[in-house]
Design a protein that fits this description.
8 helices, seven-stranded mixed sheet, 45% helix, 23% strand, alpha+beta, two-stranded antiparallel ribbon, 2 domains
Amino acid sequence: MAYRTTQLNKFGEMIVDGNLIHKIDYIGSVHLISGKHFNVYRRYNSEYNIVLEDSNLNYLVQRNMTIRESIGCAMYLSEDEQESIQCVQAASVKHNMPVSDPALCSLKWSEVQVIYTGITILIAYQSDDHQSQVNEVIHENFMNEVINNYNNEYVAPIPSSPQQQAASSQSEAPQQTPEFRQAKKRRRSELELLEPLPYNLRNKKQKM
């Protein structure tokens, strides 16, 4: 906490009428859906008058710009990702109530300070990389489900004892009805329309 106070005081150092003062104002807290968080401050001793502080006490100074541009710069977003930034919800420090301005992310930080004194804002953006990762997870879960279904339906468990082997052979025979064989054939066709199964499962399938 002492380090943080020292850093913010340094950012706000000014000489006024021969006296050293510290002037830095809180103007916002930005929360991203991904979990990233920034505190936003305004100082008055530089053209780079916006200071962003992340949860690890790393600091970034910027010129006065819109919320969309500011967060896009801090997060190294592409132009498309930056344009997709939108406000999910926000609250005004001055009015102590929700902000419903649809153009909030297009306001500069100085405008935010004048209108709302400060804000807390939750924002989201469309990330190509994130969507790709989500798609990969969905695809992986889907294929795992396919493989599990394949194992459950077509790969018989190995009996662990002679008694279980005998019971298994007796219980499997009645299941080989025309309906069962038809369902088995249809399921195999569905799997072949997807992706090739892993090598070990392909071998099991060929032996059936």
